[in-house]
Design goal:
about 260 residues, transmembrane helix, SAM-dependent_MTases_sf, methyltransferase, methyltransferase activity, transmembrane
Length: about 260
Amino acid sequence: MKPDYKNWIPKGMLVSLIAGTVLSFTLLLVFGVFGVCVSGKLRVVLGVVFGIAFVVCAKYTQWCVYAYRVFSYDGERKLSKQIIDGTAEHITLPEGGVGLDIGCGSGVLTIACAKRNPQGKMIGIDRWGKEYASFSLPLCEKNAAAEGVKNASFRRGNAVKLDFPDESFDAVTSNYVYHNITGKDKQQLLLETLRVLKKGGTFAIHDLMSPRRYGDMQAFVQKLMDMGYERVELMDTADGSFMTSKEAGHLMLHGSTLLVGRK
């Protein structure tokens, strides 16, 4: 059995955009070019409207197809796998330790961390909302079984308010989660994540940490150091480590950054 980690570009969105492109092009031909049942100004107006719709849909479709291929776990580039493996390598569990993956989606990062730390176990949490309907708790469990991973489990949870006491875990991690949570202070979300990390525990949080979304992250790093954290680093992952700057631009992943360290 092969794991199915899905694609970060929902297939439903891709299909809808392709359908919209075909439909708008068809309407452009019917009304704008051939003028079926319309003429004069109406034909011009419809031609312009459907022409603009076709161009917009075609552009978005082109981007989605490109992104889908780049992120695919079965494709040639496998950017998703590179990001997951690159994040997981910063997570270390002690003998019998427990790590937490927040916003686990299809379970891929949870499983990657569990495979790297057979001496411990990982817990993946997610709310599995309708935005990513193809991701689910049963899917995570099936993927763990497909990988032969028995030291990973999954449950529902909320990244905004974690249902765990302070210092519950030996490691915490997440990948491209917090930028999706609208209306919340991103640095506060990070502090909530780090709240459940034990003293001496490791963390690796990958997200789009642009100043517009996260504010001054250098000041945040200093804040953690002032709080007594042993090590805190910000790593630009669009410098060729995970992806090139050009790829980040094409994929709208500007600000991709890995926050790593030890409490």
